[in-house]
Every structure is written in structure tokens, then in C-alpha cells.
Amino acid sequence: MxxxxxxxxxxxxLVVLEGVEDPSYDEAVEIxxxxxxxxxxxxxxxxxxxxxxxxxxxxxxxxxxxxVTKFTGHPMEIKLSEEILGRVFDGVGRPLDGMGEIxxxxxxxxxxxxxxxxxxxxxxxxxQTGISAIDGxxxxxxxQKLPIFSGNGLPHDQLxxxxxxxxxxxxxxxxxxxxxxxxxxxxxxxxxxxFFRRTFEDSGAxxxxxxxxxxxxxxxxxxxxxxxxxxxxxxxxxxxxxMHILVILTDMTSYAEALREISSSxxxxxSRKGYPGYLYSELASLFERAxxxxxxxxxxxxxxxxxxxNDDTTHPVPDLTGYITEGQIVLDRGVYQKGVYPPINILPSxxxxxxxxxxxxxxxxxxxxLANQIFSSYARVSEARALAxxxxxxELSGAxxxxxxxxxxxxxxxxxxxxxxxxxxxxxxxxxxxxxxxxPRSELxxxxxxxxxxxxxxxxxxxx
Amino acid sequence: MESNGHxxxxxxxxxxxAGAEDLHMSEMVLVGEERLIGEVIGVxxxxxxxxVFEDTSGLKPGAAVYGTGGxxxxxxxxxxxxNIFDGIERPLEVIHQNSGAFISRGVHVDxxxxxxxxxxRMLVKAGDEATPGLIIxxxxxxxxxxxxxxxxxxxxxxxxxxxxxxxxxxxxxxVVVEREREHENAPLPDLNPDAAADGTLLTxxxxxxxxxxxxxxPVRERRAVNRPLITxxxxxxxxxxxxxxxxxxxxxxxxxxxxxxxHQLAKWSDxxxxxxxxxxxxxxxxxxxxxxxxxxxxxRTGKPLMDRTILIANTSNxxxxxxxxxxxxxxxxxxxxxxxxxxxxxxxDSTSRWAEALRELSGRxxxxxxxxxxxxxxxxxxxxxxxxxxxxVNLNGLEGSIxxxxxxxxxxxxxxxxxxxxxxxxVRVFWALDRTLAYARxxxxxxxxxxxxxxxxxxxxxYNENVGGDFLTHRQNILRILYEESExxxxxxxxxxxxxxxxxxxxLEIARVIRLGFVQQNAYHVFDTYVPFRKQLKxxxxxxxxxxxxxxLISLGISMxxxxxxxxxxxxxxxxxxxxxxxxxxxxxYFQEIDGFYHHxxxxxA
Lengths: 464, 606
What we know:
The complex is a heterodimer.
Chain A: E1 2-4, E2 8-10, E3 14-17, E4 27-33, E5 38-47, E6 50-55, E7 67-75, E8 77-80, E9 88-90, E10 106-109, E11 126-127, H1 132-137, E12 140-141, E13 148-150, H2 156-174, E14 179-188, H3 190-202, E15 209-215, H4 222-240, E16 244-250, H5 252-265, H6 279-287, E17 299-307, H7 316-324, E18 327-330, H8 333-337, E19 350-351, H9 367-391, H10 398-415, H11 425-436, H12 449-455
Parallel strand pairs in A: 9-15, 13-17, 13-18, 14-15, 14-16, 16-17
Antiparallel strand pairs in A: 1-7, 2-3, 3-6, 4-5, 4-7, 5-6, 8-10, 11-12, 18-19
Helix pairs in contact in A: 2-3, 6-7, 9-10, 9-11, 10-11
Chain B: E1 6-11, E2 14-18, E3 27-31, E4 36-43, E5 47-52, E6 65-71, E7 73-76, E8 84-85, H1 92-99, E9 118-122, E10 129-130, E11 135-140, E12 146-150, E13 157-162, E14 166-168, E15 173-179, E16 194-197, E17 200-206, E18 209-212, E19 221-223, H2 234-239, E20 247-251, H3 258-268, E21 273-279, H4 283-295, E22 309-314, H5 320-339, E23 343-349, H6 351-364, H7 378-386, E24 390-393, E25 399-408, H8 418-426, E26 429-430, H9 435-439, E27 452-453, H10 460-466, H11 470-495, H12 502-519, H13 533-555, H14 560-565, H15 568-573, H16 575-578, H17 585-605
Parallel strand pairs in B: 8-22, 20-25, 20-26, 21-22, 21-23, 23-25
Antiparallel strand pairs in B: 1-2, 2-5, 3-4, 3-6, 4-5, 7-18, 9-11, 9-14, 10-13, 11-12, 13-15, 15-17, 16-17, 19-24, 24-25, 26-27
Helix pairs in contact in B: 5-6, 7-8, 11-12, 11-13, 12-13, 13-17
């Protein structure tokens, strides 16, 4: 059905159309603007024959008379086939790389459907990223959703790129053709998108990457669609084609801000900081699309990146994300200022799925205790530092001084590593023991006596 | 089926329905050709408001809306235990078989298996009086749970006929009851088929009955709660216990271990039935519960934990209205088993997601918000949920209980937000999870200074009778040391621990032993994950004995450094890993070791 003209234009992304016959909720619409331009939209509210349409490319150029609106009869869909590998699309799934439309094997509703919990397989295989702070302390598991909480000016993009580079290398050894990356950019700067593109090319992975780009100057409403299109592609590759997919979603904060912008233009009642009350459900509908299905082979692993406004973890976006995702990797400005890369603050960082994917039969039997001990000892370091700030480091007791040394070397030798350095899991574990050797054995209360006998060896600062 | 109107407006899960004068408040409706399940949440002169429990994408205005006459209900009968349901009691395993790995809309499946035959042993005979709640038959539902078939709460009369013992499906009539006239208009929901013959009202009673989820099942009387729910978790049982029939909240920011604590409680509590509601949480977590609970053995029966567990899963990406309903579905099921005389416990993870579902729907209805966008009725909804907990005498005279343990996910880990604050008003146990503890991987991260239990006084008699009078004193002493530590830490933060007098350094050391050796508990350790109450008590005694012996040494002028040179503190901390749950006699050896330590130092320094 086609309709000429509009009844109302509300703000930057909503239009109202009256007298529509038989619209359906969430239906995709095409809007042809006089002069040949074409925009996409979807039905977000219906009241009788009056519908509210969200226009992804924004309402610029629209007037009440210069449009023809066509209802497609189905929700937003994207075309899929294995040809999408190596291609670049815009935020709603149209080719951007000038290589033409793809031949579609199938079309999928970008909203996806909830995975039935009984159809899931509990994720247990770790992905070696070659980064000690992640492999050793917040192990990434295949099928997990593990976000990076960052701030502006922190090297989250470099870290994500390093994970992609090194994780794909380690995956190569087992299943060469079965690993691919889906990259979705929401409201990121051109430079950032370009940085990722170059990284993929340099690492020789470009053929196995699908990119969906909605840049900072692209329309806001399109941003709502971008991660959905990307995840639909990821699910297709994982569950139809049996591939292991790593999805990078950046920047989730821009996504949430786009939601807020649209919500406020619809006049909805805001909850915290102006974000709509359904922000949690919206984020969950993205993050829950990670996982493994029983008997399907592939997997979807997500690494969403979000920048915390004012580095505040309690801001609604990181806060709600942390409640949905299976842990978080938190970057810290203080650590970064000490020249440590990756500047991961391990105390608030966590991988929830780690406990079942490490230890005997997975990594090594001492890994869980070792990780616990490092967390516990490093928490003591903060106390010693707080005390040192008051009474001065010289006045500290011997025990506290040892913790200060331990903390320093832990940051500079365990967490810190080169951007192109990939450490094996066993190297990381060995390094962990070497660092713990700085502390007297009696302070290591999280490790069983048996493991201490086998692995503990005292070390001196000079050993590093 | 006759249509009661049609869809006019659609806004997410909220529909405006036109031309529906007959719909009544809370009525369950079916929408469109797919018969999506919905519920009436507002009735106006020319419009009604319906919330739909499924995804509304693709729904069109004009779609027919069918009233069902009844409210949203659950089917109660054998086959519930060991199952995993969605928020409105549809079995996810059956949905999986019918529609694959992803959940489609408009799936209509039987709530319970109608084909399966259960071996029923009849407990009544013709001519018996049928009173509400009367147990008429029993059938083994799982190896650990005997299902008791009851006369529904709204049926009273005389039993006219009874089938012989044998295998029946949940829809086979087991008993026919001649109903008394005055109960014809029973105030309670009556969903059971009536058959009128020769002027009397006949009701067939089968194993399954229906119940409206928003209506609490009636009981004869509520009793005072006076006995603990033993959980095997030291910080809970020994320091902040919960009563059978009590209510508790576990608030905590993300990563502090709410779900982990809920899992531990679901695994090890000495309740007969566990209802675990995953309300707006992660899909992988539900999968994990399914996998773990099928493998783990109940310490009391030796049977798989799944044999006493019911899972309700409305993961965070499933429809929001069903999330709101899932809490009520869960508690109605718990009440049904309570009516059979069982002690049930509900883990609701997380009630904040439920409150947010309320907020989301309220926002779509354009209601006037109260605090932080939450509707003004948040408090009353929370209280009416928590008040369905309790220790009761059922209609049939049996005692049963429902314990509610609700996780709360405060926004920004800030306990002053509305859900935490309103929950705090209605629960009597508060286990506050703490980020600092979680960061140091101290689990369970229950902060002893912020947590409390109001049930101690109520349960005093039980402790005196069953555990001994020492328990409460020991508990008090342990907590006192922890409180003293926190005060001393204020000073230590400013000037360091070395300048404190030895008596205070001892307090710090003993507090460390308590924190590491007692309060901290390893959920992944083969026996530390569940510790019997008797061992907990003995461990407290041991630590306090160490404290008093050390105090004596200090008062004799022996320095704290001399005390710390011995490894006695580390030994006591390691007790939790070195003494098995059935080797309590080994603990006596530790008392002797403390004596040995005492004499050794005494003689060395005398």
C-alpha cells in the first residue's frame, strides 16, 4: 500500500501518517522523497488508522507533501548469505563498499527471537586472547558476552583490536575457516571505524569480517537498527553456517543515547537520566543474542564496548549493561596514566563464565586459585596505598611495603604488555606465580597447601 | 469463540481494544489469529487496555480480541516439578520440540503433560465429606516428592464416587463431589467443570486444577515463624538466619554474587520444594541451573536436586509483560505445594527486573510516575507479593510454609533507590552484598555490618531446644569481634596497624580468622559449599576458644608478634577445608592444638 504525503512530522526522526489501512506493528516502511531519495522507517505505534513511523535516515527534507510512503508488510529484514563475509554495510544493512547488492540466500527479521533457555548449551571453551589480564583473570569464554567498560581517551579500540587479532590467530589453529568477525559501529568517529578496518586488513582477517557502520554523523534513528542487523548476520553465520563469530559492538553508549533521543521525541516518560524505562529490555534484546545452541556447532561471542560518561560505572548505560552481560572488563584512567597498557582495573573486572571454563581439564588445575589469590592480594594493595597516602610509604610496616611492591610489579609486568604481544595461557599462569612469589607464602590464603607446594617459589623485585 | 472487540492501538506490549464492553479487569484475553495471550489492565467507557505476554510485532489494528471469562491462571498438578516454564507456565522443553531453538509467538502448548499417567493411590471413599484442601489421593511425582491431590479450595460437599487405585492422567476424574448449594457462588475462582445431574451440582475432581495467579490461595490460619530455614551457608545460618516462612532480600550491584547466592540457597536449603524464578536475567544462567541441578544430589535425599525444583525462566529478552507475570506464576505454584504440607522456598532473581517491567508498562500507559519513573503502586505490589510468604496451617490442617528470597539489583549499586528501599520495608532479613568484598573475591559478599535478620528473637526457643543455649551467645561474640574490627580499621586506615596495642591487634587477627575461615565460604569446594549447622556451631566455638586463649597470653605480657610467629591462625582458617562435614570429631583435635599452642608460648615466655 502506498500513501502520498504525511500528516505530521515530529522532530528529527518521527512522522505521523493517518488513514493507513491495515498497518502492522513494527512493520518496515519505505519512504520515497521527491527527488529520488529513499528512506527507511518502521512503525512504532498504532492508534486505529493513525501510525507513528520512525524514519531511520532522519526527517530532513521531508515535508507534508513530498513523500510517498510504502508499507512492506513485514518487519525490517536484511538479506543474508555467506557472501556478506568481507563486505561493508551501512547501519541498516545496505552495501557501502560499492560492490553491489548481495545475492540473498535468505532474509531475516532483524529483531531476532529469544533463544529458548533449554536450547542453549552452557559455554565452557575459553578463547585465548594472549592478553594476561584477560586470559588469567577475566577469561573470555566462547559464547559469552563480555563488554569493555571504558572512557573517552582510553585505548578500548586498541584493546578490542588486539583481542580480535590474537583470538582469531589462536582460533586459526583449530578451525581455520570457521572463525569470523562481525563488527557493528554505532555513532563512532570515522577514524575509529577506519582504525578497525585497517586492523582487520593488516591481520589478514578482512575476508572474514562483516562490517556494519553507522558513523557519528549518520542518522540517529538508524543507530537503533545497526546492532540488530549485525547480530542477525552473526546468528545466521553461527547457527546456520556453524561458524564461531566474535561480535564487536561499539559504542553502546551512543546506541543508548539514540534511544533516549527518540524516546524523548515521542514524549515518553523518562526514568533515570532521561533514558527510557525500557533501556534494560532494549539492551538485553541485543546482549542476549550471544550464546551457543545445542547441536548447532557455531557460537556468538560478543564484546560490546561502551564509554562511561565521566568514567562513572553507576551511569545507567554501564550499570544496566553489567546486569545483563556475563561480566565486564573495566578500563581505568588511573592505571592508564601510569603508562600501563591495557589499562585494565582488575578489581571491578569479572568474567562470570570463567569459573566453569578454567582449571583442570581446561587450562591448568591451579588457575582458579591463582586468579582468586591475585584478586585478593591486589585488593590488599589498594589498602596499603591508601595508608601510604596518609602516613607516607616509609612509615609502612614491612608487610604493607611488600604489597606496594607487589602491586607495582603486578601492574607493570603482568597487566602491562605490548600491543602486539601475545602470551600463551601457560605463560600467563607462570607469570602470575612469579608475581605472587613477591609475597610471603603465609599471605597466600586462597591457594590450597598442595598447590602452593607445587607452584609457589619466592621471588625478588630484581627478578623482573 | 466469540470476539469481544478488536485491536485499535498498539504500543509495544500494550494494546488499546475497541468495541469491548464485556471485558472485565484482569480478564485473560486472546488476541488475533495467533491467539496471543494477554490480560486486561484497564477498562474505560469505549476502550480497554490489554497487556500482551508475547511479542506484538506484526500485529494489526482490527485483529479480533477474545475474552476468556477467567483470569490469567496456572494449571496445578503433577508434572510441575523438574520442569522449566516460561513466565506464564508454558513448558520450554515442549516449546523447544515444537518450534525449535528460538521462541516463536502464539505457541499454544499444554502447561502440563496430559498424556502421562500417574500412579495414584486413593485416600478417600464414597460417602466421605469433601472439604477444601482435603487430600484425596497421592502419586509419586518424582523420587523425592509425593504429590498430594487435593479438593480445590472452593469445593465442599460429599464424595459420591471414587475411582480405584491405578494410573490416571491429570484430566481423569478421580472423585466426583456432590456440592452443597450454598457454595454455588463461592467467592473464589472456580475453574473446574461442573456437571449438573438430578438437581445436584456435581464436580469432578482430577489431578490438575487451575488457579488465578494474582489471587493468593486461601489458608486456615497463619502461624508465627519460629524455625530456621537451614541453608548450609555459614554467614546466613549462623549470623543472619532466615525463618521457614520468612522473607529476605539480597540486594547488590552487578558482579557481587546475587545469582550465585540464590543458586547456593536453591541447592542447599532444607526446603522440600524450590521454585526458582529467573525474572529478566541471563539465558545462560538458566541453562546452568538446569545442567547443575540435574547432576547435583540433594544432601537430604540423595536424589537429583531437580527432583524438588521448579524453574521459571523469563530471560531478559523475553516479553516484558510475561516478566511481570512470572513472579505470580511462581508463587502460585509454591502455594499449591505448600497446601500439600510442604515447606517451599522461592528464589526470585531479580525482583528489580519485575519492578522495571511494571515501570515499563506503566510508562506505556502514560501513568503519572512516582520516584525515578516507577509507578506509585510499586510499594503495594511489592508488599502484596512478599505477604504471600508465611508459615501457615492449610485448609486441610497440614502445616506448610513459603519462604521468599528476592534478589534486588539496585541501579548503580545504590541502596537508596526505590526498589531496594521499598523491599526493605517488607522483608525481615536483609543480606547486603558489597562491591568491595566482591572485588577482593570474598564470597559470599554479604556485608556483616549492613545486613540484619529480624527473626532471631522469634527463633530463640527453637535454638535453645535444638542447638543449645550457646548458639546465640557465640553468634553475638563473633559479630562483636567483627564490629570491633571495623571500628579499629578506621584508625588503621590513618596510622597503620603496627601502632595499635597488642590486645587490639589480636582483635584484628581474630577478625581475620573469622572473615577468612568462617564468613568466607567456597561454593566450588566439594564440602565447603554446604556446611551442616552442627559444624558451623563447632567452628564458631573453636574460633572463640582461640580468641580467649590468645587474650590470656596477651594479658600475660606475651607479644602479638610471638603469637603470630606460630601458625595457629592459619591452621584455624584452613579448618573449613581440612575437616569434612562428617568428621566433626577431628575438630576436637584442633581444640587440643590451641591448648598446645597456649602452653608452648606460656612456657617459652614464662
